[in-house]
Amino acid sequence: MNQTQTRPPLVRRAGEPDADELARMLSGLTDLSRYFRFQTAIGTPPRQALLLRMLCPTGAAFVATRDETIVGHAMWAWAPGESTAELAAVIAEDDQRRGLGIRMLSIAAADAIEAGATHFLFVVSAANDRSLRMLRRRWPNATVERDGALLTFVTPARLPSHPKESLDAVHEQVEHLNRDLRRMDDALPAL
């Protein structure tokens, strides 16, 4: 493995200029990975309307890059229900199972909490064992409802890597993640 592959990806806010690179990443996913993320076929390359919804949601979107190549995407968007944010992530095949998904979900969760989210919503295929294990481990108090092949989890908004914590601890973690994001944004050249 070369040094480029071992360096952790840079996570930053996403926007419309990321559409082509995000389309490339999504096109490189297996059919199963795309189905687990979208619960439907998305086409190759993905439609521009889908890419724009992913990059400019009603909440915020983030991409993970390595040498200008997108290797992950996470987002949150306002969902029905009082102060409920839906969280979702998708990671390039070669970067799966290395902690990038939970790292990106943590950043999206922190941003959603800062925006006022009090609950998180996840919609997951009942066949997506890895995501189901992660949700049950990271958000053990989530309630779940089944709708055919989909499971809908709702949980109080908290960061995934920590068990129950006080509101002060959540705010401290949100501030820490936001400082990291600001440093990353400062390091990016203006477009």
Automatic annotation (TrEMBL):
InterPro entries: Acyl_CoA_acyltransferase, GNAT_dom. Gene3D superfamilies: 3.40.630.30. It holds the Pfam family Acetyltransf_1. PROSITE patterns: GNAT. Residues 9-165 form the N-acetyltransferase domain. This is Acetyltransferase (GNAT) family protein. It comes from Kribbella pratensis.
